[in-house]
Specification:
Layout: E1 3-6, E2 15-18, E3 30-39, H1 42-49, E4 72-73, E5 77-85, E6 97-100, E7 103-105, E8 114-117, E9 129-133, E10 137-139, H2 147-151, H3 154-166, E11 174-177, H4 183-194, E12 198-203, H5 208-213, E13 218-221, H6 227-234, E14 239-244, H7 250-254, E15 258-266, H8 279-284, E16 288-291, H9 297-308, E17 316-321, H10 325-334, E18 340-344
Parallel strand pairs: 11-12, 11-14, 12-13, 14-15, 15-16, 17-18
Antiparallel strand pairs: 1-2, 1-4, 3-5, 3-9, 3-18, 5-6, 6-10, 7-8
Helix pairs in contact: 3-4, 3-9
């Protein structure tokens, strides 16, 4: 089969498109999925660069969970069709159109934490076929979303769903989404709006209109004279929650905007991982600071329901064939796109 094979840490030259990769065979409890569409993520680039570091050596070349076994087929965002079943798999799955949960979990419970990822700790979807656990293949019969739109969901929207669920963001609550034009940020806007939250979003001037069309009630431009004042003016009485993918100095500046009992959930630190804030503001106002990495099986099941009913409309920013994966990753790295860049094998 054709597959994009990562041969080691480094630049684009370590990613080879090959035609001679063996089609994997499903084992017990697994299915073989013919990939209809995949999508590019930060995880793909960070893994190729070995940019995650190790706890004892932040500068070490490493994947998300440490060691990566090469060669590795990357790609965690996968939609396709089940074409072969392993032992002890429900025969009804054969031929089903599916959305794949890319997480590898510590246990088979709805609340299990992810401990690995397709495309990182196991082969992923930048190929014509991929083997996945049958329990991770969610049937999409009746979904109005295209294969490419489904492929936009797993990592970005899964991460966003995990954030919203862990922060218990509910209908009628006011939530600030930072970095709202990025993959996870735009997913947060759409998913929060779909559950009836009042969404305030921060983004750049040129992407404001699209973020507004995606469901944000108020969009604050990052170049505003006083971002904090602008947000405060948009939510009289304060914010119920902040869904943050930016981090950095904004945490200390925006934390006072949370009303008593508010929640700050964070899943990224592109603006800086080292922060400083007044702990007294945290405990005296019963605030919660929540770290969120990806999603649980339960969170992804919620996302699958959203996909089946078409409650969100993922934006496909650009499309590439698998043979042009280097160009796809190059465009992704420039960060000029809004939405997701998809790959078709």
């Amino acid at each position: 089969m054709k597959a994009a094979v990562l041969t080691g840490f480094g630049g684009p030259e370590r990613l080879l498109v090959r035609e001679d990769v063996a089609v994997p065979r499903p084992g017990r409890g697994q299915v073989l999925v013919r990939v209809a569409a995949a999508a590019v993520n930060n995880t793909d680039l960070w893994t190729r660069h070995g940019a995650y570091g190790l706890p004892e050596d932040p500068s070490a070349l490493a994947g998300w969970r440490g060691t990566i076994e090469f060669p590795r087929v990357q790609g965690g965002d996968i939609a396709g069709t089940v074409v072969e079943l392993g032992a002890e798999v429900d025969p009804a799955l054969h031929g089903a159109r599916v959305l794949v949960d890319p997480a590898l979990y510590e246990a088979e419970t709805a609340e299990a934490n992810p401990v690995g990822l397709l495309g990182s700790e196991a082969d992923g979807g930048f190929a014509q076929y991929v083997v996945v656990a049958a329990a991770r293949a969610h049937v999409m019969t009746g979904s109005p979303l295209s294969d490419e739109q489904l492929a936009c969901l797993p990592i970005a929207y899964g991460t966003a769903m995990g954030m919203l669920e862990r922060a218990r963001i509910a209908e009628g609550e006011s939530v600030l989404v930072t970095g709202a034009s990025g993959g996870v940020g735009l997913a947060l806007v759409q998913l929060a709006a779909a559950r009836g939250a009042h969404v305030v979003a921060t983004t750049t001037r040129d992407k404001s209109e699209l973020v507004s069309r995606s469901g944000a009630h108020t969009v604050i431009r990052r170049d505003a004279d006083d971002v904090v004042e602008a947000i405060a003016g948009a939510v009289a009485g304060g914010l119920d929650a902040v869904a943050d993918v930016v981090g950095g100095d904004s945490v200390s500046r925006l934390l006072p905007l949370l009303r008593d009992g508010g929640r700050w959930v964070i899943a990224g630190a592109v603006a800086g991982s080292g922060i400083s804030f007044d702990l007294r503001r945290l405990y005296l106002r019963n605030l919660a600071l929540i770290g969120s990495s990806m999603h649980t099986p339960g969170h992804f099941a919620e996302l699958a329901e959203v996909a089946r009913h078409g409650l969100v409309t993922p934006r496909v920013s650009a499309r590439y064939p698998l043979s042009e994966i280097h160009a796809a990753q190059g465009e992704f790295a420039r960060h000029a796109h809004v939405g997701k860049i998809t790959i078709t094998p």
